[in-house]
Amino acid sequence: MEFELWWLLGIPVFFGLGWVAARVDIRQLVSESRTLPRGYFKGLNFLLNEQPDKAIDAFIEIVRMDPETADMHFALGNLFRRRGETERAIRVHQNLLSRPDLPQEQKEHAQYELGMDYLKAGLLDRAEETFNAMVSGQYAVQARRALLEIFQREKEWPRAIEAALGLQESGAGSRQKEIAQFYCELAQDALVHMHPEEALPLLDKSLQADRVNVRATMLSGDAQLAQGDVEGALLTWRRVEQISVPHTALVAQRMMDAYRKVGRPQEGVNLLKSYLEQASSIDLIEVVYKAVLELDGVDAAKQLVSNELRRTPTLLGLDKLLEARLMDAPANLVPELSMVKNLVHGYTQKLARYQCSHCGFKARQFYWQCPGCSRWETYPPRRTEELNVMN
């Protein structure tokens, strides 16, 4: 009973202590809020209302009144960089770094922000120098990511591979797909300069990094063809089907040309038709249509396009059907068919685009790296209209 009584007596004491602590916290909070400049809240309000220009003016005023406010310098520098005023952002962060009393943590932060300013301004050599000095500090992962971006922009693929491996080792996630693409870039360059014997080992490394890399498989076939091994190239290109049937549209013309070289064009047509049945594609139809027209005549080509149009109704398919109809149309129908064909063709030029699945950037040709967001393998191997019909 005595023990329980003491607890009862302690309850008011604990309550009183809690009330005192709360009062102290409230007073401290009020005191701190009073010390903040009015311009801070003004600038914050402008940011929330998406008025960055007015926010910058408010923050500049605070910096003039209190030049020692490091956090405000960071906010101001980032706003300048976002608005594209990289010179002003660089000056802000350089001024911060010149302060001898700046704590080490804030110094590293300012150095990182300065590197990002250089990167945004396109001063890649300065950005590289800045980030190289940071690969062992608290911003090591961010610095390595920035260096990887720089090496890709400069197309320094061996250094990009090294940077990607460094990122992996630092625990920043797998970069195997990117590494495979970097090896592909090196192999592509070797093939352009007519050195297939140099390209093949690079492509082997690419496939070691990413076994299902379509591009490496396609380029391996190209390298074999450049060495005169047509049958070997065909066998390699046929592996694309095992990785991704839609991507066979990208290698279809290569395969058809190779089958002609070895004297088996009909075998090539039959193979591409089987791909078409699995994954309809206007690019694949184009290749098969020309081959059927050459081997089997106009009627067979018209039937092919007509069947595909029924299966996947698109303006791109209709354009190809009208082209086939014009080949043997009666003379009195040619003017009308030509007019319709030209009208449809004008619309298809806008629809015949590849589109990045990440940023939406559209392009006439297929890219392995998006020109808009610089991400790898974000382009589906089908045109936008075909994707819309499928969805």
Written description of the protein model:
This protein is mostly helical and 391 residues long. It has five domains: 2-33; 67-166, Tetratricopeptide repeat domain (Serine Threonine Protein Phosphatase 5, Tetratricopeptide repeat, Alpha Horseshoe), CATH 1.25.40.10; 176-244, Serine Threonine Protein Phosphatase 5, Tetratricopeptide repeat (Alpha Horseshoe); 260-351; 353-391, no CATH class. Helices cover 74% and strands 1% of the residues. The chain contains 20 helices and two strands. It has a two-stranded antiparallel sheet. Strand 1 and strand 2 form a beta hairpin. The longest helix has 34 residues, at 2-35. Mean pLDDT is 80; it is low at 5-10, 19-36, 39-49 and 62-67.
Write out key terms for the chains shown:
single chain; about 400 residues; mainly alpha; Serine Threonine Protein Phosphatase 5, Tetratricopeptide repeat; two-stranded antiparallel ribbon; elongated
Topology:
Blueprint: H1 2-35, H2 38-48, H3 52-65, H4 70-82, H5 86-97, H6 104-121, H7 124-132, H8 140-153, H9 157-169, H10 176-192, H11 196-209, H12 214-226, H13 230-243, H14 248-261, H15 265-278, H16 282-296, H17 298-311, H18 315-327, H19 334-351, E1 354-355, E2 362-363, H20 384-390
Antiparallel strand pairs: 1-2
What is the number of helices? 20
Gross CATH architecture of the largest domain? Alpha Horseshoe
- What integer value in Å does the Rg equal? 32 Å
Largest β sheet strand count, sense and barrel closure: 2 strands, antiparallel
Spatial order of the strands in the main sheet? 1-2
Mean pLDDT across residues: 80
> Which series of helices and strands comes N to C?
HHHHHHHHHHHHHHHHHHHEEH
Task: Report the count of strand segments.
Answer: 2
CATH level 3 topology of the largest domain? Serine Threonine Protein Phosphatase 5, Tetratricopeptide repeat
Give the termini separation: 75 Å
Helical coverage, percent range: over 70%
Please state the overall shape, judged from the principal axes of the Cα atoms.
Answer: elongated
Estimated share of beta-strand residues: under 5%
The structural class is mainly alpha
